[in-house]
Amino acid sequence: MAPNEDAWVYLNGKAYPPSELCSYLLQNLKETANDYLEKDVTKAVITVPAYFNDAQRRAIVNAGRLAGFDVLKIISEPYAAGLSYGVNIKEDGHVAVVHFGGGTLMVYILEMSHGVIEIKAASGDALGGENFDNILLGYLVTEFEKTESINLSTNKLALGRLREAAEKAKIELSTTMEAEIHLPSITADASGDKHLHITLSRSKLESLFSDFIENIKKNCQICLKQADVAAKDIAEVLLVGSMTKVPKVQEVVTEIFGKSPSQGVNPDEAVALGAAIEGGILSKDLKVDVDWGLRGAVTDITTQGSVCTCWAIGVKAAVEGIFFIINGILNNFSSQQIVDCAGPDGVEGAPQERAYNYFMTDGVCLDAEYPYTGARQDCVGIKSSRVFIDSFGRVGYGNKDLIAAVKEQPLTAGLSGSFVQSPVYQSYKGGPYFGDNYDFTTDALPHLVDKAVYLSDTQISKLKEAFIRFDEDGDDLLETNVLGRVMTYLGKTLPEAELQEMITEAGTGQNETIGFPRFRNMIARKLKYTVIAELEDLFKRVDTDHDGFISASEFLMLMNGVDETVIQALFQEADTDEDGQLNCEEFVRLMQPK
Q1: How confident is the model over 476-496, as pLDDT tens digits?
Q2: What's the whole-model pTM score?
Q3: Which residues are CB-neighbours of 455 under 8 A, at least 6 positions away?
């Protein structure tokens, strides 16, 4: 045990932290890749089990750096397996991943939509192939003792030979019905050498394997229940890990899901292939179209056309986001109702306050009841089912005020004419815009935009894993009295007063329950994920040549409108390694609100 209570390993009288030992393994892999490619490999994507917490993931990152890698990303193994199956998949659907390796059994349900992969549920335990190997080894030791009256379990050399032969026989039985285990002179007694010869049948192997088969069934059923998905709705089944080559495993998986596992993915290579694909995406070698609307709670896209209805569309989008945060329900409210009924000539534009006031006084129905036409028409009356807001207010116009507000909920922002016409605004296609050249106005309103923050896929996956882990009865609801344990699991311990404040803000009591949408928003705000995610995304967009750095000219373009002397001073301050460019970490540190 290390002084900080971390578990260390002692070898030859020296203590090693786990991250250092892991770095030696990664260093060996690095050398192998260098030799094969005949060039130095400097960047890596590393996979970890989905249940790894933040501290464990950081340790892996440290190990990668010790090995000489620039660790671009840590991704979970099921996510990698999903990538290996469908990096360019266009169909929406659910995929089951059965990962049965040497140390663990894990079952995952993934949702694949427009190229985005989300882990919907996970279930498993620490019973893996090594446990089964020990059972098989025990059986062979017992069989030998029956015939020779010698217990091999105390003979380390003999046991090592037998373990190797057992592993070989297990693999052989994946393609044959019987395997011969023959080890001459495995031991000796007073009468001379003793030879081991045992015929192992596939049926016997499967009988030894019966508890593991039941375990696979149990975890598959738990996972389907947690994901609220029927087995018949699983589009594909992926097998990962060497133990999934056992015919009985494939048979039971086929029985559970009603379809044969995919043969397009090698179980031994699926996770590594997924990591390679992710590396290709990050290095721009692979193109993956991502619908940014899938990053969070976003309703259907409304095309404004040639009319000036952004004042209504922007406000109703902000209210939709707030409604989702509070209630966990994503509704598409009617912008056409606001345009027609909130005041005269709504298609010719209006101040955003008019839309907010209409939400307060009259309420707005669903878009399905009052669909958008993008044309001038009379107000056709108020529908019976409407949503109201209690109030609305202004925030400051500086970046810090905007960032603080948008972390809590979506908001609307009016862009001035000069900004809308600027090359910076015209060149970006969507998503959050961040920089000191915001030009907001309260008077003329050429365009109204909606501002919101999103979580990255990795962050959403981590929150989903935490939710599933603490949802003990699998009803997709989390009791608020476990939120403190969840925060600790995610790496942040809250004082009791702050925890109670978080529960109160959620509008729930101490022993009530919340669904995942509300849980996600509560926890994300406490972990301050959102600003960093936004800045990391901005870095990728500003890095126009995709070399992993922002040059002085790229930074100058971003800060268009700011005095060049100030820009140079900021750039030099952020460029801590003085290489004349900014990496992502330096950029985020500079742009993050102090």
Answers
A1: 677 777 777 777 777 667 677
A2: 0.47
A3: 295, 296, 463, 520, 524, 529, 530, 533
